[in-house]
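> example.struct
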């Protein structure tokens, strides 16, 4: 099965892994030096901070693996692991870390900062020192927790299979498609719509608008229409990037802001480049807002998705829904978490299109609103029978009988006049009221009806599983 965990997007990772095997099979290496004192202090602070804030930021996060490979100079140090990959030797338990430390000669580039299955699943955080990655110590610690959030994503049940089911990799088995997917970054209409949405999102998350839920509702409607205007594969890629990279950026911000009330250890605050966590939090938040207002698809490419996805996370926090509880169960489509906003609106828009296509008697488009195996059910008296009964009809059979039913007269129309919608995850139940017209120009029957409709969402699309209908009472 193709391995497509996100950090496989790091260029050259396959070559580097091959080099690891060569190094492991070579001559006996020199003894690795102990971890540098500053590295030990930073790593210990990262583990300590995670224990203090990760459950406050994201319930269930503590269940994620937290294996780290630190790259320094000519050596690599593997910490917080239950395995011993080939080529590593134990340096014993480290008192400050409270964990065993393994070491081997350096294989990966010293400025690497990524999370991927370097030694097979589960994914490992592979990170250079702050000096090599261009970060100060406090920012480096927060970034390690950003990568730790990816470990939560990648280790969630079904992640690998659901990513593959998106059908975006083509013939690529390296995972590089996550970087190289041909999203229409240069398309003027796509870029303009995305930038407009990003500007609106910036205003919402910085409280520059006062209408609250009404503004958020309007935004989710615009975003959903934009996403649906893309080619289906492009929509799936956008959704994956916003879900995976954008929410990791959001989690990074939440960690830094939660750490404002956290007391670092004296050894960490004594590092020469230490800065308070609240300063890092302010910088991350301002970076997200700046990204929403200045980054464009044509210039930044997929990097523009990071701030946008983080902004969506901040907006979801205002929706009054348990979106974090749905995040790993219902992957990739952030608009589905907006509760009474995004998901219900999507269902209603799908049903508006259904009634339009039904009224137009466009039977191909009508059938496309149903999942395979769906049924339409009512009570009626079939020709030649003496009593009414419950009749469940498949969509192909319904379409086949349409010339004798709604297609038999020049006038037919069915319009939704109201609906009650309940959405739980990828399941929706709708009690839809409709009016109908049927007949000849000089003789038109009218009536009111009720449709009880069950829909399921899969790969970003709501479709009907079953529809039961009856006349409405007078």
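> example.seq
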């Amino acid at each position: 099965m193709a391995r497509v965990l996100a950090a496989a997007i790091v260029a050259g990772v396959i070559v580097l892994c091959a080099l690891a095997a060569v190094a492991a099979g070579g001559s006996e290496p020199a003894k690795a030096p102990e971890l540098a004192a500053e590295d030990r202090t930073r790593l210990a602070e990262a583990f300590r901070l995670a224990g203090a804030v990760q459950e406050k930021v994201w319930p269930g996060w503590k269940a994620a693996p937290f294996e780290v490979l630190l790259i320094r100079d000519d050596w690599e140090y593997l910490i917080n692991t239950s395995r011993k990959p080939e080529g590593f030797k134990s340096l014993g338990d480290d008192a400050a870390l409270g964990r065993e430390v393994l070491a081997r000669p350096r294989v990966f580039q010293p400025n690497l900062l990524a999370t991927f299955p370097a030694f097979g699943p589960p994914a490992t955080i592979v990170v250079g020192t702050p000096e090599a990655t261009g970060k100060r110590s406090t920012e480096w610690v927060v970034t390690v927790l950003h990568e730790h959030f990816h470990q939560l994503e990648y280790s969630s049940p079904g992640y690998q299979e659901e990513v593959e089911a998106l059908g975006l990799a083509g013939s690529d088995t390296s995972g590089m498609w996550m970087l190289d997917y041909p999203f229409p970054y240069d398309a003027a209409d796509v870029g303009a719509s995305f930038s407009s949405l990003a500007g609106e999102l910036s205003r919402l998350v910085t409280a520059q608008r006062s209408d609250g839920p009404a503004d958020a509702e309007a935004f989710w409607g615009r975003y959903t229409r934009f996403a649906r205007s893309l080619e289906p594969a492009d929509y799936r890629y956008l959704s994956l990037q916003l879900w995976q990279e954008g929410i990791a950026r959001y989690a990074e911000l939440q960690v830094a802001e939660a750490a404002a009330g956290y007391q670092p250890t004296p050894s960490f605050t004594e590092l020469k480049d230490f800065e308070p966590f609240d300063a890092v939090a302010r910088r991350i938040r301002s970076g997200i807002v700046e990204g929403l207002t200045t980054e464009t698809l044509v210039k930044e490419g997929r990097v523009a998705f990071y701030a946008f996805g983080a902004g969506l996370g901040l907006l979801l926090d205002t929706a009054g829904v348990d979106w974090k509880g749905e995040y790993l169960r219902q992957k990739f489509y952030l608009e589905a978490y907006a509760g009474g906003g995004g998901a219900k609106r999507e269902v209603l828009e799908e049903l508006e299109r259904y009634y339009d296509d039904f009224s137009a008697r466009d039977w191909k488009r009508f059938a496309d609103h149903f999942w395979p195996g769906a049924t339409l059910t009512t009570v009626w008296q079939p020709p030649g029978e003496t009593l009414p009964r419950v009749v469940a009809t498949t969509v192909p059979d319904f379409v086949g009988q349409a010339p004798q039913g709604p297609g038999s007269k020049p006038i037919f129309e069915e319009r939704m006049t109201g609906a009650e919608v309940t959405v739980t995850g990828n399941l929706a139940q709708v009690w839809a009221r409709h009016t109908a017209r049927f007949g000849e120009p000089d003789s038109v029957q009218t009536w009111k009806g009720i449709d009880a409709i069950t829909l399921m969402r899969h790969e970003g699309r709501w479709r009907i599983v079953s529809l039961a209908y009856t006349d409405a009472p007078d």
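> remarks
Residues 1-26 have pLDDT under 50 and may be disordered.
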